[in-house]
Design goal:
By secondary structure, the protein is α/β, with parallel strands linked by helices. The protein is 31% helix and 20% strand. The protein has 2 domains: 155 residues, Beta Barrel (Lyase, Ornithine Decarboxylase, Chain A, domain 1); 201 residues, Alanine racemase (TIM Barrel), CATH 3.20.20. It is elongated and about 75 Å long. The structure holds pyridoxal-5'-phosphate. Homodimer. Only the dimer is catalytically active, as the active sites are constructed of residues from both monomers. GO terms for molecular function: ornithine decarboxylase activity.
Length: 452
């Protein structure tokens, strides 16, 4: 059992449990639900209509261009449609709800070049975790001062690489790392990563990284002893948190470290707070509200501390739609069958295994008809309108390669039909493998729906 960090028990009353409102994904997808909220301004609502029109057109043109009877091997492969306009909408939304917080996009969530260029142009900075991610971002012409090497456990050779490239900002959570940094990159601008209570998160990170508050003194003493440049504190609340109050509590814990560094150890005032990632569009309003509450209370605008974040999925999840081809079918019983599609958990849907995602298969094309956004044509649960029960499988020979064991369709889908999966941009192509000889150079079609 983890012990309760000091500040959570004594300093302040923690914020109450704040639930992420789960919108029904059965009808509208969460992107549409978010942008079409009653209080959203009209321009955004209209831009969403334009986005849907353009996404459909992009999917349709591509599918119509493929004749599965005659095409070259692989021409009917799954493909992504990426809406750069969505990235612009997300950026504007971030600026509106978190005006004090400069985002450092977490490259690992989707290192797509167009996403990186777009974000770099909009003014985002970048969170990298490895040599190759740093190289990718520097290739965009981004200044090394706009990169944070946010991996608390780095190979010595990678630290030397960061030093050579001029990437100074980095995180740490153990004394051993400090010794390496002292040796190879002593002018680093360091952020101490603290653990958070991420017990409500779907993807927990604090079991692997982050220093418990009880151990902070040991790290601060070492920083002092080695004469290193501690500039701030970072944390990550985990992904898919259902209790959003962890944002508030983590900010409060960070304040404790800020104070401790100066009062107990006489270190120079810290000047940077990094509130990490874990932002999701479906509860962005709620999580930013509680984060701002914490920031206003513990780091008011007058306190002179700069605030940054490391959002990953927020900027890429809703920007991508994946389209897949039905390559095989096995009838099981009357109105029940197994469908095999050309993408799966070893490809772009590895997010099922690694990221606890539950992609929603929707009918794109059946019997010469398109069904984009025909929300009645498929369902996660049995409903009278969808009498055909299917399980959906990926193309590899592994039994684990299953997208869903149970889904319901309005039509009796056939080989040659197409499915689409909305909001599939985060932790998908970034972790696809070549297992079983399936190439992973997935085509991406780009559109830019109207924004602003
Ligand atoms: C993965 C990761 C992120 C991004 O997390 P999201 O949930 O995609 O926002 C940010 N910072 C660090 C250190 C990470 O490991």
């Amino acid at each position: 059992m983890a012990t309760v960090p000091l500040s959570r028990v004594d300093q302040h009353k923690p914020a109450n449990f704040v639930q992420c409102p789960k919108v029904s994904t059965e009808l509208l997808d969460f992107r549409e639900t978010y942008w079409k909220k009653k209080d959203a301004d009209e321009t955004i609502q209209n831009s969403m209509d334009d986005a849907q029109e353009q996404i459909f057109l992009g999917l349709k043109q591509r599918v119509q261009a493929i004749n599965q009877e005659t095409c070259e091997a692989g021409d009917e492969n799954s493909f992504f449609l990426c809406d750069i306009g969505e990235v612009h909408r997300l950026w504007a939304q971030w600026k509106q709800r978190l005006p004090r917080v400069q985002p450092f996009y977490a490259v690992k969530s989707n290192p797509n070049n167009r996403i990186l260029t777009t974000l770099a142009e909009l003014g985002a900075n970048f969170d990298c975790a490895s040599k190759s991610e740093i190289e990718t971002v520097l290739r965009q012409g981004v200044d090394p001062s706009r990169i944070i090497y946010a991996n608390p456990c780095k190979a010595s050779s990678f630290i030397r690489f960061a030093q050579k490239c001029g990437v100074k900002k980095s995180t740490f959570d153990n004394v051993e790392e400090l010794a390496k940094i002292k040796k190879f990159h002593p002018e680093s601008e360091l952020l101490l990563r603290i653990a958070t209570d991420d017990s409500s998160a779907q993807c927990r990170l604090s079991t692997k990284y982050g220093c418990e508050l009880e151990r902070v003194d040991v790290l601060l003493a070492k920083v002092k002893e080695l004469g290193l440049n501690l500039v701030g504190v970072s944390f990550h609340v985990g992904s898919g948190a259902s209790d959003l109050s962890t944002f508030y509590n983590a900010v409060k814990d960070a304040r404790y470290v800020f104070d401790r560094a100066t009062t107990k150890f006489g270190l120079p005032e810290l000047r940077l707070l990094d509130v990490g990632g874990g932002f999701q569009l479906d509860c962005f309003a709620e999580s930013t509200e509680i984060l701002n509450m914490g920031l206003d209370e513990f780091f008011p605008p007058t306190c002179g501390v700069d605030i940054i974040a490391e959002p990953g999925r927020y900027f890429c999840a809703s920007s991508f739609t994946l389209a897949c081809h039905v390559i095989a079918k096995r009838a099981v019983e009357n109105k029940e069958s197994m469908l095999y599609i050309n993408d799966g958990v070893y490809g772009n849907m590895n997010c099922i295994l690694f990221d606890h995602q539950d992609p929603n298969p929707r009918v794109l094309y059946h019997e010469n008809q398109f069904h984009y956004r025909d929300f009645g044509s498929s369902s996660r649960v049995a409903v009278p309108e969808c009498p055909y029960k299917v399980s959906i499988w990926g193309p590899t020979c592994d039994g684990l390669d299953c997208i869903t064991k149970e889904h319901y369709m309005k039509f009796d889908l056939e080989i040659g039909d197409w499915l689409y999966f909305p909001n599939l941009g985060a932790y998908t192509s970034s972790a696809a493998t070549q297992f079983n000889g399936f190439e992973q150079i997935v085509d991406v079609i780009y559109i830019e729906s109207s924004h602003a």
